[in-house]
Sequence to fold (259 residues):
Amino acid sequence: MVDGDRRYMVRVGGDLPFHHVFRDREAAVSRAANAAGLSPPLLHAGDGVAVFEFLDARTCDAGDVRRDWRRVLPLIRRCHAEVGRQLAGPAPFFWVFHVIRDYAATLRAGRSRIVGDLPRLLAVADRMEAMQVPMPVVFGHHDLLPANLMDTGDRLWLIDWEYGGYGTPLFDLANLAGNAGMATDDERAMLEAYFGRPPDAALWRAYRAMSVASLLRETLWSLVSEIHMDAPGVDYEAYTADNLGRFEAALAGFEENER
Fold:
């Protein structure tokens, strides 16, 4: 949107309770992310409309993240360390295993086409949850798709805070790598750069398990969207198939390493 010599980004959309998306929470986190220097200013939020200052920037893709993950990592660190300190109001929370279980309930209620496979998928989620290790609670983004990174040339910005909340740092790291298709060597290097030490066996297992959970969550997100959303031009069944394939590949890789 253009108003005189000023440009704005306008997003229209109400709450999506089946996706745990509530616009008042998103607005509060967006303001905190701006105060932390990560996201553009939110100028208006209400009645299903959010108006942001326009970023003259390029949307990143998976190749950008694979090549420049060391450039992305400082944003994640700043998010984890600073956004929560700027947040006003109730504290949102994100635990991927709860999201998976709640999505499964939504899929059962909506008679999803994959209801018969839900017991297996939930058993996988339980196994991956049991692999987690103690971690500090941080404020995470929890939706690190490459398209949520914007590049102005001199710096990166992080946008779209629908799932911002307190949680484990492992989810953001696994989510970033999984969505970008990062190589295993780069994943290990990313963990070493984030934690300041090479990952030991327990941390690496927890990370790999979180990677499986992240891809399962995205698969179930798409299946829920098949039932409850109808965005023009969006093929949710194709997106489900893509993420289900990546989830199954990640699960097979995890199980091979556990043998």
